[in-house]
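Hi, here's the filled form for the chain we discussed.

Project: internal
Contact: R.S.
Residues: 367
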Amino acid sequence: MSEQLSRVPLHERHVGLGGRMVPFAGFEMPVQYSGIKDEHLAVRSSAGLFDVSHMGEVEVRGPDAIAAVDALVSNNVRGLADGQALYTVMCAPDGGIVDDLIVYRLAEDHIFICVNAANRHKDLAFMREHLPSGNAALEDTSESYVQLALQGPEAQRLLSPLVEQGDLSELGFFRCAWMKIAGQKTLVARTGYTGEDGFAFYIPDQGGAAIFDALVERYVPSELTMCGLGARDTLRLEARLPLYGQDLSAETNPLEAGLGWVVKLETGHDFVGKAALEAIKARGVRRRLRGFRLEGRGVLRPGYPIFVGETEVGQLTSGGFAPTLDASIGLGYIDVEHADIERAEVEIRGRRLPAIISKKPFYSRPR
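And the returned structure, exactly as it came back:
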């Protein structure tokens, strides 16, 4: 491993549990433990525990905190109540996506933001450059938190015995609250990146080890499976959740990426990139992000070209095997003229194979 890679606070615990460590976003991170397929299916059927402490946290405080963040992101932060979260994007002046984020309103004067690991320093520079003048202070608090994710249909049942203060049953989707878990003050959010029910924990100071150990000692491996980045990627792909750096980038805009629902152009307040997005919406996008499910054998991968007849009409941005579906799936951008057709072909090593095109998630959890 390169000496330049950072380590998450619980690194040695992951090694001790058999985690296979790989470089990712400047960190040594566990890519798998028992195997990607096993971990994936465990999250779909029971529960899995992820360490995502490589993700970044940014906090904005002050009387103008809400207005300041609203000027940075496309969604409507003003519409949040205390303890509510939203998914959004942060755009450059030309409408390209700087990052996709989750924004939590903790109080009228306190906004908490989760940013992607690889974008942390870029995001901070962008935020500082574009933060409007006023009474709001921005702070990078990434080094102050351990971030864990407990995901799967059994997540609430497994976590409940460790909750000493708070009520998980009252915590709705995309809501958050401070709770006491295994003796530690924790910001618990009903959010995730797997397509399943579950929770993200933002644990201050040294409390992460106590919560991690309590979950592992009580449930691993009988009821809870340790999961790495490999399963996180296959789970998010099945749920059609985009990945920054592949499906989203500075060269893509949220309207073509199917994220128009997080772009609030009608709220009356300005944000970075709004004028460009208004112009894009007025003239129409040139391509659309779609899902592709391969018919037959083969594995879809990023970069594979998409064809309709003899015409190349797009390219995959994500791809891989979907354990829940026992099929190969991918995401990719396709020319708007062909975005609503039902089938196309994907070229894999010189062979063009048929694929079904979909606007919907490949997997949706039972309600």
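Let me know if anything looks off before we file it.
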